[in-house]
Structures are given as structure tokens and as C-alpha cells.
Amino acid sequence: MGARWRGRLSGTDGLIGCYSTQTYKHMNSGEGGLLVSNDAAVMARAIMLSGSYMLYDRHLAGPDPAEFSDIRYTTPNVSGRMDHLRAAILRPQLAHLDAQCARWNARYRAVEQGLAGTPGVQLIARPPEESFVGSSIQFLLLDWPPARVQEALARCARRGVELKWFGSAQPTGFTSRYDSWRYAPSAPMPASDRILAGIIDMRLPLTFSIADCEKIARIIRAEVGAVFQAC
Fold first, then answer.
1. pLDDT tens, 14-43?
2. Cα(90)–Cα(72) distance, rounded to whole angstroms?
3. Bridge partners of 200?
């Protein structure tokens, strides 16, 4: 949320854009989310699904009541609406989203600059068409043996820097992979597997100061660099 590609906001391509507002997302209500669309029929159906009953005409952002003439008879109520408390938590965050995105990017750039040139570390090359939101940072330890990756992560953890790795054989925390999703069978993807085996991820919460991010980068640089040099 808040990112752009060639000036176009993410979530505005296609018929519907969906945003999570779960903990750690760019707007945080603990749980929940929202959707956007410029299609009146889609939004009318979403309002009915959300559990508006026949009070849809009270929805301040809803389409013209005529859009509900048939939908109201054919769409079930699944009570998927957001409660007022979560909406009240999100409204002021929406007003400050651009400023928050700028704060995340400042923290991202601090870590990125600190890691630049670290032996064995590949950073993301950001294309000029992209306006990203750096609420987390990823880097690549490409073709590192798993034991070396685990050693580097353990060394960072001992100094208080917790990194997530997508190369583990088992899903851990937020780092599940496509081959962990047994409810959606897939064919092997060796090229993707090679990248996943080296992806390291770390969130950059706004509770981190710029100085914190610079220190974190120094720790990662020292510990990952030391493991690489020993290879």
C-alpha cells in the first residue's frame, strides 16, 4: 500500500485491489482489510456480501442505489464487514500514509547503504519506474550452502538482529514457500528454488530510528561478511 509503478498506485490495476491491514502492514488494525474498485456492480455486491442487509443506501462510499436492484436478491450475507473500531483506527493512518511511507524508505535506504558492497550479499536493484515502500528489506545470499546461511543468521541473532530465511525446508513464521502449500500442488521450479534458497528478509518497523538501522546494517555486514570470507 502506497507503492507505485510508473506513477500508478499499487492495487489500482485489474478489477479489484485488496489490501490487508493485519499487524505489520502499512496500515495496521490488528486484523482486517479493505478492497477498492471503480466498478459499481462489484462494489454493490461487496456491500451486500459484507452484511449490510437492506441498509445498503446508508453506505457513504457505495454506488447509486440502482446498482442494488437485482444484486440484493441474489447475493448472500456473509457478515464480512469491518467493525467501527478498526475503521476508526485506520482512518487517521490513511491520512498520514504518504509520510509513513517516506519514513519507511528512509530506514530502508539506511540499511541498504550500510550493506552495499558487503562480500557475498546481493541487494535489490530498484528500477526508476518503481516507487516502493521499504517497510522491510530483502537481500540475496545466492548459491550459499544452507549451513553457511544458517551460520550467518545465527551470528546476527546473537547480536540481536533477527533475519528471516526462505531457504528452510520447513515453513517457519512468515517464510513459507510454494512447495510448503500442500493444498495447492505445484511442479518443481528450479530457477525459483535457487532464488528462494538465498532470500533473507527483515522487517523495518517505524519504531527503529535511522541510527538503529545503521547499526543493524553494520552488524549484518560484519557477521555475513565474516562467514563469506571463511567459505
1. 999 999 999 888 999 998 999 999 999 999
2. 28
3. 139, 165
H-helix or E-strand spanning residue 84: helix 84-95
Q: What is the pLDDT of residues 171-228, one digit of tens each?
A: 887 788 888 888 888 898 999 999 999 999 999 999 999 999 999 999 999 999 999 9
Secondary structure (3-state) at 8: strand
**Structural domain boundaries in the chain:** 4-95, 97-230
CATH 3.90.1150.10 fits 97-230, yes or no: yes
What single DSSP character describes residue 157? H
Phi-psi region of 81 (alpha: psi -120 to 50; beta: other; left: phi over 0): beta
Sign of the alpha-carbon torsion through 133, 85, 74, 60: negative
| 135: pLDDT strictly greater than 80 | yes
DSSP 8-state secondary structure symbol assigned to residue 67: G
- CA angle at 201 for the pair 177 and 143, rounded to the nearest 5°: 70
Q: Can you spell out the DSSP letters for 105-143?
A: HHHHHHHHHHHTT-TT-EE----TTEE---SEEEEE-TT
Residue entry with cell 442494488: 68
Strand partners, 199: 140
- Give the whole-angstrom CA distance, residue 20 versus residue 174: 15
Mean pLDDT, rounded, for 144-157: 96
Q: What is the predicted pLDDT for the residue at 223?
A: 97
